[in-house]
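Example record

One chain of 506 residues, shown exactly as stored in the release files.
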Amino acid sequence: MPPSLSPVRDVLTAYLAEYPNERPALSGLLDSLDTGGDPTSRATLPGHITCSAVVIDRARRVLLVRHKASGLLLAPGGHVEASDASLLAAALREVEEETGLPASALALTPEFRDRPIDIGVHDIDARPSKAEPAHRHYDVRFVFCLADDALSPTLTLQAEEVGEATWLSFDEVCLPALRAKLARSGLDGAIVPMNAAAVVHDGRGRYLLHLRDANKPEIWQPGAWSLLGGGREPQDVTLLDTVRRELREEAGLEITDLRLYAVEHAIGTEGMTVPIQVFTGTWSGDPSALRLTEGVMLAWMDPGRLPFLTMAASTRELLERHATEHAAPAAGLTARAEPGAQAPEPPGTVPHIVGVHLYLEHEGRILLGRRHPDSSYAGGSWHALAGHCEAESATACLVREAYEEAGLVIDRDDLELVHTVHVVDRAAEGHAEGAGGRSGCRPPRIQLFFRAGRWEGTPELREPDKCVAWQWWDPKDLPEPIVPYARAAIEGVQAGRPYTEWGWTR
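Predicted C-alpha cells for this chain:
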C-alpha cells in the first residue's frame, strides 16, 4: 500500500513553511495533490515524487553513490514503492538497498525531524526502451546521521545500480541547492536526543512501568511495558521539561527529584535508532490511583520480573543496570544505618570530599569554563566543568553536572578515569597552614578527572551565576588564571600520569 496522501501533503506543508519561495517550483506537485492524483506513483505524469537519503557522518561528510544510469554522484534514492508506508520509509529502503546501511544504523536530527532538508526538481529525458516519456522528478531529500561514531561504516553496494560510494564534504556536493542548505544547517553528524523518559522507582527496588496499548500498531512498542515519557515539543526548553510534562500528561505525576541518568538508544517505528534522554526519580504511591491518559495500566515491577515481560531489550538492560547500581537493602536492614550503629572512625581520620571533573577534548583542545568573578571559590579563574558527589556515584554525578552546567549529554559508559588529584587547596582558603586536615582548613579532596569518549550537544551557559564562558583551549597553552590543581591534572593527562598530589606538605 503506497503512502497516504495526507502525510505527503503534511511533508510538503512543513517544507514550504521553511522555504516559501520554492512554492512556484513545486506547483506541479501541489496541483497533483489538489486534483486527487497520486504523486508517489511513478506512473503519474508529467511528474512524481522520488525520495533520497542524505546521510551525514561525524566529520560533516555526506554519503554519495554513483548511479550507473546517470553517472552522477548523488545521495542514495529512487522511486516510491507500494510497500513504502511513508516518504521517509522510501528513503530508508533506498539507502539500505543501495548501500547496505539498515535503518537501525541511522537517526534523525532535531532540525529535520519533521521535514526534508531539500526538495529537488529536475527533468528526466524520455526513455523509449522503457516506454517512459520525458517527465519531472520531485526528489524529497531526508537527512540522517549515523547512529554510532564510525566514520566509514561498512557498505554493501547494489551492484546492478551503484558503481561506487564515497563520503564528500558539504561543499563538494554537486547539487547547488542541497549544498547551500547543508552549509547553512549547522549539522555536525552528532545524534541528539529528541525524546525523554523517566525511570521512576520507589527506592526499595521496584520500578513503575507503563503497559502500552496492543491494538494500535502505529504507536511505538505496542503491547510492551515501557518507561513513561515522550517526544520534545516546541514549548519544552529542555528535555527535563519534556519528561516533566509527559509525566503530568500521561499519569498526573509530579516528581521533584528528577535527575539525568543515561541515554538509551532504542529502535523507533521506522526502524531507526532513537536516542532517549533518561532521567531518574523516586515515587512510592499507588499506581492504580493515578490518572492514566494513555496505555492500559501502570504497575510496580521488581527487577526479577523483567526477563518475563514484553519490553524493548534496551529498556530491560537499562533497568537491570539501574537495579544493580541501586540494590535494595537486604531483608531486615534499613536503607541507611542509624548513626549509633556506624563503626567508629579510627583516630585521626579526616573525611575527604570527592569531586568530579570533565576532561573534554575536541580537535586537540580541551574545554574550560571561566568561573563567575563573585564565585566563593577561584572567582574569575578558568576551571574544568566540575561538581561534588552527593548521594550518587562519581560517574552519575559527572553526567548530571555536565547536563546541568553545560547542556551536554554524556552516557556513563563513555567516561574513562584519566587522572586523580589528591588536594589540599590551602591557597584557595587563604590559609598558610593547616594541610592534613587541621582544624579550620578546607577538607582534603579527591578530585577525579574523567575523559568523555563521546558526547552530544554544544556547551551552553546553563548556570551563568557560576560560569560566565566556555572555551576550548590548547592544553599546551592554558589560560591564566587557572585553578592550580586543574592545570596539574591537565598536565598529568598529557604526560600519561594517572595521579598527582597537590598542596600536601607531608
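Notes: The longest helix spans residues 5-18.
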